[in-house]
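Dear support,

I submitted the protein below through the web form. The confirmation email said the job was done, but the results page showed an empty box. After a refresh the structure appeared. I'm attaching both so you can tell me whether what I see now is the final result or a partial one.
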Amino acid sequence: MATEPEHHVDNRGTTGCRAHSEYASAKRSDTKRYARYFHGMLERGVFLAPSQFEAAFVSLAHTDADIAFAARAAAEALAAA
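What the results page shows now:
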């Protein structure tokens, strides 16, 4: 089975891209914690995909300030999740 990178927040609060090599690995993901993280990011003005199994991309349209803003929001949202 081919693996595709999938955005996730695991039960340690780690976020990023990681290939799920099997269905069982995806089933272990903490979807409730991702939901809290997702809503925390929305509250801080950062819009993410509502599913942790979707990818997020940085583009050349994002400035250094945009990336710093999102990084601060992510740190706060993860700490609150």
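Response: this is the final, complete result; the empty box was a page-load delay. The first strand starts at residue 5 and ends at 9.
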